[in-house]
Every structure is written in C-alpha cells, then in structure tokens.
Amino acid sequence: MATSHTHCLSVPRTLFGAIIVAALGAFFAGGCKKVPATPGPAGAQTTKATILLDWKPEPEFGGFYAGKLTDVFGKHGIDIDLAVGGESVATWQRVDRGDVDFATTSADQLLIARAQGADVVAVFAVYQTSPQGVMVHKARGFSTMKDVFTHPGTLAAEPDVWLKFLLKKYGPGQVQLTAYAGGVATFLAKPDYSQQCFVTSEPLIAKSNGGDPQAFLASDEGFNPYTTMLITRGKTLREKPQYVKAVVDSCREGWRKYLDDPKATNAAMEKLNTEMSPQIFDEGAAAQKPFIETEETKKSGLGTMTAERWKTLAQQ
Predict the structure, then answer these.
(1) What is the mean pLDDT of the chain?
(2) What is the model's pTM?
(3) Which segments of the chain does DSSP mark as H helices, in order?
C-alpha cells in the first residue's frame, strides 16, 4: 500500500483520535482518489462480513437491508450477514473483541469506547441529525424539552449521554426517572409518562395505537451525535482498507436505493419485525429522510462526517 494511503488511514488510539476518524468520510467518499473501487466480478470469490445492528429491523437500517436485498454488497465482493442486536447491546464491544467486523452505534458511544481503550473507528454515519428524543403526551401541553424536566411526571430513559446532557442543562427538576423497557404500552397507559424515543419510530407506533404523542429532539437542545453509525476495528481498517471500503461503498449504494424507493426493502423487513405494521414502515422511511439527507451529504455523499462535528461532541 502506498505511503499516501497509509497516511490517509492513520488512526491514533486516543479519545480525540476518534475525531481524526471523521477524515475517513472523505476517504470513503473518494477523497483518496488513488484507492480503486472493489467490484466483485462474476465468479470472483466473495468475502464474508457481518454487520451487527444495535436494534431490530426498522427503517433506520433500511439501507443496509436494501444493499443485501439488491445484492449491492455482492457486487462489491461482500457476502453480508445482518445480525440483530437488541436493547442495551454494546455493539462496539463485539467489534473490539473481533466477534464481528462491523456494527452500528452512535458517535457518543464510540467516544466512550475509545476512552476505555477500545480500538474502534467510525467509517459511515447514516443519520446526520440524530433522531434521539423524548416522547410525551400532547395533552400535557408541553412546548419544549425543558417542560419534560421541570414538570412532575415520569421519564423512562437509559442513562445515556444525551440524558446526562439534558440533566446538566435543565437539572433534575421535578421529573422522576425510571428505566426504559422498550415499546409504547406503558406510554399509552399512563398520561403523565414520557419516554426516550427515535422521533422517526416510537411516536408513529404510539399514534397508530390511538395515542397522542408529541416528540422533542435532543439535537434541538444542542446534542447531535451521528447516529446509526457504522464502525469497525482500527486494526481491520489498517490491515484491510479495500475490504472496509467495499463494505462502506455497499452501504452508501444501499442507502441510496432505500431512500429512492423503500417499498421492497420495507416488505422484507416486515417479515423480520412483525411488531411494526406496513404503514409504520412506510411512515418511518419517509420521516427519517431529512435526518439522513442534508446539505452536507448532498455535497460530500451519504454517510459523510466532519472533524468539526466530532470535536463538538468530544467537548460536550
């Protein structure tokens, strides 16, 4: 591998080294022009790869499933397996151990992982605007996220960075924190109950079940990490850059296909996740588009990342 390529792929293992990884967005979007594409010609041997998803099959992973369904991965010489994680799965730990080569997580979790010495790096960011938020009952008359914390009631949420950020901003207030168990059943049953959500998912499910959800975004409060972000080991990236590039290129093409026409992929995911109706899949796919396609991605390509965003997040 040429020296210029090695320089482009250099990833120091420090907390702020994760910021440097943002430069890889330029590499995988074509910033290092000398690295060729890696198509998989007919009859060529393919490389097996697994992407461990940090939740169930839903529109937030639509581009990965579209890439598999339309054999985009196969075109790039990748025999892909999409493994499903679940609630509270620390996917970065599986990647760091070498159990899987790729997984999805959020940018704040990657910074935490690297601070603990994990050799994990970011190579593709699906959500440019984080859909992380809090869902409340519209009947409560709240107008801002601040109202959630300064009024009596219950907030079900995991003790993640976004929650700590909001608690620091608004103080513990009057809200009672409780563990998040997933689903929307408790939300529908209790009028003073609010919960964490992806605004592109749980509010749609709650509304379809007769609820009156209203959601507030953490990104509107200033906390906006890349979300549904593809990660791999630094070791894998350094030793197999063409392999990683083939997976990233496949993801970008898969997401382009899904954003352009999600119907066939939604139908396939519905069979894997029967908890969501076809209507919710369609609504979720439409709702998430502005979180994925931005002025930045129009300029630099889907999945792009910037050093400025990483620096802001690390400081937070």
Answers:
(1) 88
(2) 0.87
(3) 3-8, 17-20, 24-26, 62-69, 72-75, 91-97, 107-115, 145-150, 161-170, 185-189, 202-208, 234-239, 241-260, 263-272, 278-292, 295-300, 307-315
